[in-house]
Amino acid sequence: MSDRKDLIVGNWKMNTTHLEAIQMVQKLFYRLAATDHERVEVVVGPPFTSLRSIQTVIEADNMPIGLAAQNVYWESEGAFTGEVSPPMLAALHVNHVIVGHSERRAYFGETEETVNKRVKATLAHEMKPILCVGETLDQREADQTEEVLVTQVSGGLQGVTPEDVAASAIAYEPVWAIGTGRHADADTAGVGCGLVRSTVAGSHGEEAAAGIRILYGGSVNAGNIKDFMAKRDIDGALVGGASLDPDTFAAVVRYWV
After folding, report:
1. Residue 91 belongs to a domain
2. Which of 10, 92, 165, 239 has the fewest CB atoms nearer than 10 Å to its CB?
3. Residue 237, in any domain of the structure
């Protein structure tokens, strides 16, 4: 039995106004019990426009729910119109930052170099990165899954200390299973997450590999989460569409009941 506490993160992507986000986090809180939070670390990742609102609600009601940002820029300040810096997020008591999501890589040109800069900037401001890695369908069919994962894990964590790696998380999200309704079966997900952990062991040592939490993402829902969580190397989930419904997301968090 691992000492790693399960981590389930809701990535709300570009959905919800700040008022809708407030209602969602309140409903989620009411649907979870203290025992759920003892077993699972629960985190929500609203859009930037809702971070302050959610922070206020979480702290006012003393909710045991963490706050994640969906992205970050690596500079602390400057002439970078439209970007959000690590100190800005840290001032809102953001706990985690989703870094290198496949949508950021595909639509906004993020590279291994810029993803690595974001990881380091997140850690430098005492927040925890959730590094996203995963292969496309073409890469999988070309038998390149291992090559892609090794490249993305090693590139994203380059220059990061083993201690910081151990405190971070990696989300294995096969691109072909994100938002498609198609998901990797539990065995496939378990193999991918195991490869991620062995890559960390090779680059940063066994202690870092034993400490880091590896999440599965890609059409996770209340019906399949239990199968994923039964796998040795899966410590949680990065949940997309299913996290937008408080009842469904609560059921995902309570997979163990």
Report:
1. yes
2. 92
3. yes
Q: Which domain holds residue 98?
A: 6-253
> How confident is the model at residue 1, as a pLDDT?
45
Which neighbouring-strand residues pair with 98? 130
Measured CA to CA, the distance from residue 105 to residue 115 in angstroms comes to 9
Q: What are φ and ψ of residue 99, in 5° steps?
A: -125, 135
| CB of 185 closer than 8 Å to CB of 138 | no
Q: What share of the chain is helix, strand, coil (3-state, %, to 5)?
A: 50, 15, 35
pLDDT at 2: 65
For residue 28, tell me if it sits in a domain: yes
Q: Structure pTM? A: 0.97
CATH of residue 195:
3.20.20.70
Q: Which segments in the chain show pLDDT lower than 50?
A: 1
Q: How far is CA 145 from CA 6, 140, 181, in A?
A: 25, 5, 20
On whether residue 1 sits in a domain, the answer given is: no
Give the active site residues.
Answer: 101, 173
- The residue written with tokens 């930037």 in the block is 48
Cα gap 165→160, rounded to integer Å: 7
